């Protein structure tokens, strides 16, 4: 349908200003069509104008209070796809004031919309504007809260911890994270949560913080992470014991990754 001009036609419909009620309904359907087309489309097959031109209509659909949750969800998935493609698309999201729009969508009442908004912002890293947004204390508290809420919304928490892991190599963000009041709770809770995907991500956060040295390293030490890692390695280093848990192949891969990071953390702290 993209090759037949459907996407271009929908984009052309979104050129007007101050549409009336009937036109707004048409625009909503056109924007929804754009979202459906781009959810799984590889952005590399689109032209530069199609990639950049799609971002504005998709953000407008996310902000449209009369759109359905499904429309919001598909628009956010498409924005996730586009934002992760290149600096060019990230710049376009920022230029269209997309970060505040996506941040607002994180508070949707619909669980999958919240997850999709979180993942879309994750794909904005390491754009400078996204990094500045994350460093602000109130915003960082939200991301930490999302990361801790894994029992209610695991996928959203996974995206939130992934965001922290991707952002933490930035020294200023690392300082902001360890200054967060719930930093210790974040590390201890996720290390002990038993969810390998979350543990993998928080291990990555901790390893990066240790490498920063100084107060970041001291903050990690204060959480007892070193002792946890030693105990974790002691408990799971025996492959025969691991087999008793009947892990799936994916879980065995995640376990191996967490054990590798735990070894690295013990080494970094020694």
Topology:
Blueprint: H1 6-13, H2 21-38, H3 48-63, H4 69-83, H5 87-95, H6 98-105, H7 111-122, H8 128-135, H9 137-148, H10 154-167, H11 171-179, H12 183-191, H13 196-212, H14 214-222, H15 225-236, H16 239-243, H17 249-269
Structural category is mainly alpha
Strand proportion: under 5%
Radius of gyration: 21 Å
Q: Tell me the span between the first and last alpha carbons.
A: 58 Å
Describe the global form.
Answer: elongated
Report the biggest beta sheet as strand number plus sense, adding barrel if it closes: none
Task: Give your account of this protein's structure.
There is one protein chain. The chain has 17 helices and no strands. The model has no long low-confidence stretch (mean pLDDT 93). Helix content is 75%, strand content 0%. The longest helix is centred in the C-terminal third of the chain and has 21 residues. With 270 residues, the protein is an all-alpha fold.
List keywords for this structure.
270 residues; mainly alpha; 75% helix; elongated
Short description:
With 270 residues, the protein is mainly alpha-helical. It has helices spanning 6-13, 21-38, 48-63, 69-83, 87-95, 98-105, 111-122, 128-135, 137-148, 154-167, 171-179, 183-191, 196-212, 214-222, 225-236, 239-243, 249-269. The mean pLDDT is 93.
